[in-house]
Amino acid sequence: MLTDLMPVQDTTQSLMVPDHEIVRQLTCKSGEVEFETELVPRTHYGESKPQVWNRGKLGIRFDNDHGVYWLRSSMPTRLQDGSVFGTTTLKAGESIAFSLSYTENAPAVLPPLDEVPQRIETCIKWWQSWSAQARYEGEFRDEVLRSALALKLMIFAPSGAIIAAPTTSLPERIGGDLNWDYRYCWLRDASLTIRALIELGFWAEATGFLDWMLHATRLSQPELRILYTVYGNPAPKERESKVLRGYRESRPVRIGNAARDQLQLDVYGEVIDAAAQYAFHGGNLDREMQKALIGFGNYVAEHWNLPDEGIWEPRTGRRDHTHSRLLCWTALDRLVSLSEQGKIGRVPIEKYKKQAEAICRQIQDRAWNDKIQSYVSDLDGDQVDSSLLLLSWFGFEKADSVKMRSTYRRLRERLSTKDGLLYRSEQLPPEGTFAICSFWEAEYLALGGGSTQQTRDLIGTLTKYRNDVGLYGEEIDGETGQALGNFPQAFTHVGYIGAALSLEQREKGEQQLAHRAESATSEGPNPKQAA
Amino acid sequence: MNWESWIVSGFLATLGLTTVAVGSQGLHLTRMNVPYLLGTIMTPKRERAHLYGFLAHLVNGWAFSFFYIYIFEVRHIANWWFGLLIGVAHTLVVLTVVMALLPTVHPRMATERKGPTARRQLEPPGFMALNYGYRTPLSIFVAHMVFGAILGSLYHLR
């Protein structure tokens, strides 16, 4: 049995721990097994070959520019041409352990390998205790917990940032060039993510994420960047690897993301809506946060009418996206609601109301196409995309309204596969179906666009596309059902949690989506969890 | 011995040494974190180790400046280049003798002979502290030369 983990620090003990570490334990349960190990270290995305030293009982070390890696193992290894090899035979009941650590501080901590079993036990107990906090009790509890765990694993603990995915350039089309670097934090994910965390009861993570957003955006306020590193810095410029061949020859492998230079006006609404959900659930917006939110609101009030790259980040220029307008409306509407509820002070209410009404009129007049009886992706356009389902999620249009039902029918007609999965847009190049769009559909049904049975059936169908350990990528191949794109994808798991929560709330007759004032609750964070 | 001058110059020289040491790590010339290295003698807890180590480093600096000043008084020379020269000699002792003895003296440092144990888990510095980065000797040289030069230029002989 192979066990891999990044050990959780046991704060009740005073043990020293490495800054970063992966621990592996291999145990033979029965019979006998020959086992080979091989470490071929490369740094700088495979472009450099580091020098490797054997330091005897301390382990094997190799350096990169600023830090040092230490490999320690309980089996004999040999060094050959800068690589590490080992072979051993395990009998029933025997185990071997490995520790690969990295630090930029000296002296490094080299934990003894005989403590590995206790460290694994500590780690398992910690995760069990964490997941026991989840408040969801619906029929998809196991799946929701797995999604919450996936989300938690994408949180960078020192800062509270949540990355989109831990990988770069897993292709959205096998053999194609739709390969992007997702190892950054997109502000776009804020609103849906905060909702998932808060409604599951994970206030500490929600608070950490909000704090990180405020910290990360401080230098550019009132303007927002699209994506940040976990440390709150701008994402690096995009470049293509010269040596990596890509997953199944899907080139190029990209490092950095060019979306960092795009204008995407929807991010303002996402951040403000996230803060509104936090406040309407009883969280406190401190003075600095309030000032930042009003700065974002003022920016939106002055710039909402600009064309932008929009939610799908095409590299083909700016357009007047309905989704961006929706989120600009959301930004101003939420600030007005926050002010009216006394959650935030000094909001120029009349100015915001006037601009919100103007955006609302524009969406109703120019984003609705009478000919196809649907809301459309771009103002005055005739094509649809799955982000239109969010018109209900953000409270612009009721899910059971005639217009939304008609839009939903058009989306199904144009973007759905025979198995019920949704592509994201008619305009983009061929790729897989976009997993979160299907969860938006499930949530739209749960919000009143369909019946609870329809919602349950759709979530059930989507559950079948998880892999063997319950994880989703960004996309699902419409024909084969295999995962495409970066993996695992936080946004997809956020979508799963959201759909399951809305279904449970509807079944219990509870208020759904507390991000508008009329849906507000005042439960607030559990002080123990928020600490 | 000019005690007043020793206290002031010893403190300023220690600040200079600390600045170079911390700056060297910030500029990635070395990975060596001197406060952490010293602080873990007293506690395994990271945050406390940094604090205790920083205080210990200040006290150490003052203590070592006494020996520099003793040499200044004995030779009756106190200027920047003589201080720098003592700094070079001091560094040679630190790199060759102190670093070699550290795994024996430090209660939480592992040795290459025995490897890490439950109590001794810290990476030893190795020859000339090269385990902490190949430019570590250079940064230690510069830090102690700055220390000696400041002491030499600020200390007033009796």
Task: Provide a quick synopsis of the model.
Chain A has about 525 residues and is α+β, with helices and mostly antiparallel strands. Chain A has helices spanning about 115-130, 140-155, 190-200, 205-215, 265-280, 285-305, 320-340, 350-365, 390-395, 400-415, 435-450, 450-465, 490-510, 525-530; strands at about 1-5, 20-25, 30-40, 50-55, 60-65, 70-75, 80, 85-90, 95-105, 155, 160, 185, 225-230, 240, 255, 370, 375, 435, 475, 485. In chain A, helix 3 packs antiparallel against helix 4.
Q: Proportion of β residues of chain A? A: 5-15%
Span between N and C termini of chain B?
6 Å
Question: How many β-strand stretches of chain A?
Answer: 20
What oligomeric assembly is this protein in? Answer: heterodimer
Helix fraction bin of chain B = 55-70%
Our count of helices of chain A gives 14
**Radius of gyration of chain B, rounded?**
16 Å
Overall geometric form of chain B:
elongated
**What number of structural domains do the residues of chain B give?**
1
Radius of gyration of chain A: 25 Å
Backbone structural class of chain B:
mainly alpha
Number of strands of chain B: 0
